[in-house]
Structures are given as structure tokens and as C-alpha cells.
């Protein structure tokens, strides 16, 4: 018996691609023959074209299909005899891409249609949060479980980019958000919150880190907001290297997440790792990931959120309490815990 993974696009630096790599390492460590198959493969990634799976497909195999968007892989996997695990990462609501990227918006609509054909042929569906599990249940999947994310936290134990640290090593308060530049992430709202916080503390800056490829028109909207509000000290460097990312987390005094659609949100876990206090909008899977840690924002009132940021920065006792809770929550995502959970779920399918 072999256990393989398949997905539409295999790229470096995104949450899905990173998890595929970690699952592959784990399966091989357990002694399974395990390969990665994809339709679109970045030159840096080690994988095979998905149609090559015909050579190894078997009713005795387990195939993990990472599902997040429409693709030709969906129709291909549906016809295979292998035992199927749907690894559901959520499908971004297409409304967020209207007027931003018509092609991705089409693939999201297509993905929802394709997912509807899977409940009856799926042995197990693994959701990355309670939020996405409810969606799977509503679609008629009969065997669902929650498997948050298999992460390698050791990748953050690297040397930062010293030039970034030295450039911003001062008495300014640094606010950080990490996430793709796309409307659902609400970077436009973060800019408004920052404008209020600037009135409280002029010696502050904002880092908005994330890939904007395919969403350039939204980036233009953010730049226009920055101009209209006459905001200074806002940095939007785009996608950054791991060394640079570590530097920004080490600089951050507060992680500010106002995203209104998340199915897990890896940067929340990254913030826990770097002891960066989290303020996040209480919606979709955000509370699932945070548990009883961080600060959940129920109402998107920019001036009040700015006041809360100031409290987190100024009140040392409050700040330490937040960090302590986040450290406790981080244990939930430690590698041995997640590997044991994955082994348990795979065993259910094998048996």
C-alpha cells in the first residue's frame, strides 16, 4: 500500500504547499512510498505531473487530495479507484475576487461545483478548522475530522535579515500583518485603524507583508488609501523571504489581523511562536485557531481597535498575559501532536 498526495498547484512559500511537503516527509518517515503529484508545478518544487499518477493508482492506495480551488485534477481524482482523503483548505468566497481577478474568481466558483461531487466517494474529509468542518458537513460529507495543519516550526529558528532589523531598530511601535494582499484580508481596514493609532502614537509604523500577484488592482486601492489619508511609515514589500519574514516578526509589537475570511491563518501561529501579541477579528476560523489566546475583536470600529492596540503596547502586565496564553496555545500545533493525529486518521481509512 502507498500513500500519495495530489493538488492543483504546488508552489513554494504558501500554506498548502508547505503542508504537502511536511506530510510527504512524515509519510516517508513512517515507511510509506509517497510522492507528490500536481497540475501546476513551480520549478523549485519536486513533484510529478498529475497524469503520471496512472502508473501507481490502485484500490489499495490512499490518495490525499488537497482541495481549495477548481481544477482538472478534481475530475481526474474522482475517477480513480484509490481510497480518497479530501484535505479541505476551504474555498475563498468568489465575491472577494470580483473586479480583482476574474480568472481566479471563475476557478473558485468551479471549485465549489466540483466539491459537490465528492461526498459520496470520499473515505475521509480532513478540515483544517471547525469552521471548514461545518462547511463539509453541510455539503453532505459523512466522515469528517479536524486536522489543523502540519507545520515545521523549526523553519522559524533561523537568523533574521540583520539589515532589516538595523533599519527599524528604534523606539517606534511596529504593527504587523502577514497575508496575501487580497480584499478578504481587509488590509484597507488595517490602514484605517493605523491612521487612528498614528494620532495616539505618531512614532509608529505598519508592515503589510504578503504576495500581491494577481491582485494588483487591490494593491492600487491600498496605495490610494495611503495617499488620501496621508499616511507615513507604511511598508508594503510584497512577498518576502523567510529570513525577511522572521525579521518583521522580531520587530513587531502587535500582530493585527482584520481578515474576514480565514480557514486557519498560519500567521496567527507564527505570531504565537514569536511572542507577538495578536489582535484579530472574531470571524470564520480565527477563533478556532486562537482558542483562548490572543484578543478577539467583535466590532470593526477603527478608533476603538486603535485604543486596544495602545493598551497592549503600554500595559506590560496585560501584554505578558496575552503572550503567556499564546505560548500555551502554540503547544496545540506542535509537530508530535499533529503527526499522531494524522496517523490516527490515516489508520481509520486503511482499516
SSE arrangement:
Layout: E1 3-10, H1 15-29, E2 36-41, E3 48-49, E4 62-67, H2 72-78, E5 83-88, H3 102-115, E6 124-127, H4 130-139, E7 144-146, H5 162-167, E8 173-178, H6 187-200, E9 204-209, H7 216-228, E10 234-238, H8 242-251, E11 254-257, H9 266-273, E12 278-281, H10 286-290, E13 295-297, H11 302-314, H12 316-330, H13 335-350
Parallel strand pairs: 1-2, 1-4, 2-3, 4-5, 5-6, 6-7, 8-9, 8-11, 9-10, 11-12, 12-13
Domain Glycosyl transferase family: 167-328
GO molecular function, one term: glycosyltransferase activity
Protein name: Glycosyltransferase
Give an overview of the whole structure.
It is a single chain. With 351 residues, the protein is an alpha/beta fold. The protein contains 13 helices and 13 strands. It folds into two domains: 3-147, 3-Layer(aba) Sandwich (Rossmann fold); 154-332, Rossmann fold (3-Layer(aba) Sandwich). The protein has helices at 15-29, 72-78, 102-115, 130-139, 162-167, 187-200, 216-228, 242-251, 266-273, 286-290, 302-314, 316-330, 335-350, and strands at residues 3-10, 36-41, 48-49, 62-67, 83-88, 124-127, 144-146, 173-178, 204-209, 234-238, 254-257, 278-281, 295-297. The strands form two sheets. A seven-stranded parallel beta sheet has the order 3-2-1-4-5-6-7, with helices on both faces. A six-stranded parallel beta sheet has the order 10-9-8-11-12-13, with helices on both faces. Helix 6 runs parallel beside helix 7 and helix 6 packs across helix 11 (302-314). It is globular, with a radius of gyration of 21 Å. The termini are close together. The model has no long low-confidence stretch (mean pLDDT 97).
Amino acid at each position: 500500500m502507498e500513500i500519495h498526495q495530489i493538488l492543483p498547484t504546488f508552489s513554494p512559500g504558501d500554506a498548502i504547499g508547505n503542508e504537502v511537503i511536511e506530510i510527504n516527509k512524515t509519510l516517508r518517515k513512517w515507511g510509506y512510498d509517497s510522492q507528490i503529484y500536481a497540475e501546476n508545478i513551480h520549478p523549485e518544487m519536486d513533484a510529478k505531473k498529475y497524469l503520471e499518477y496512472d502508473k501507481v493508482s490502485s484500490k489499495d492506495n490512499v490518495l490525499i487530495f488537497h482541495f481549495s480551488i477548481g481544477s482538472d485534477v478534481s475530475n481526474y481524482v474522482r475517477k480513480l479507484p484509490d481510497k480518497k482523503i479530501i484535505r479541505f483548505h476551504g474555498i475563498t468566497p468568489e465575491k472577494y475576487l470580483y473586479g480583482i481577478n476574474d480568472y481566479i474568481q471563475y476557478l473558485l466558483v468551479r471549485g465549489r461545483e466540483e466539491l459537490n461531487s465528492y461526498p459520496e466517494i470520499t473515505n475521509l474529509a480532513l478540515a483544517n478548522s471547525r469552521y471548514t468542518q461545518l462547511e463539509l458537513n453541510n455539503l453532505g460529507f459523512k466522515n469528517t475530522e479536524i486536522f489543523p495543519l502540519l507545520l515545521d516550526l523549526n523553519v522559524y529558528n533561523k537568523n533574521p535579515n540583520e539589515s532589516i532589523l538595523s533599519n527599524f531598530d528604534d523606539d517606534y511601535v511596529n504593527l504587523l500583518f502577514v497575508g496575501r494582499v487580497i480584499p478578504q484580508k481587509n488590509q484597507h481596514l488595517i490602514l484605517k485603524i493605523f491612521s487612528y493609532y498614528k494620532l495616539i502614537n505618531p512614532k509608529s509604523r505598519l508592515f503589510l507583508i504578503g504576495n500581491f500577484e494577481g491582485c494588483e488592482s487591490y494593491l492600487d486601492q491600498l496605495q490610494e488609501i495611503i495617499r488620501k489619508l496621508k499616511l507615513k511609515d507604511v511598508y508594503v514589500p510584497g512577498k518576502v523571504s523567510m529570513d525577511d519574514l522572521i525579521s518583521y516578526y522580531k520587530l513587531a509589537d502587535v500582530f493585527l489581523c482584520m481578515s474576514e475570511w480565514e480557514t486557519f491563518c498560519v500567521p496567527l501561529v507564527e505570531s504565537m511562536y514569536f511572542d507577538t501579541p495578536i489582535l484579530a477579528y472574531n470571524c470564520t476560523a480565527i477563533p478556532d485557531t486562537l482558542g483562548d489566546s490572543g484578543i478577539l475583536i467583535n466590532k470593526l470600529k477603527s478608533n476603538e481597535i486603535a485604543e486596544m492596540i495602545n493598551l497592549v503596547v503600554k500595559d506590560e502586565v496585560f501584554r505578558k498575559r496575552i503572550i503567556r496564553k499564546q505560548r500555551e496555545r502554540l503547544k496545540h500545533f506542535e509537530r508530535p501532536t499533529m503527526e499522531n493525529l494524522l496517523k490516527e486518521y490515516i489508520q481509520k481509512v486503511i482499516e
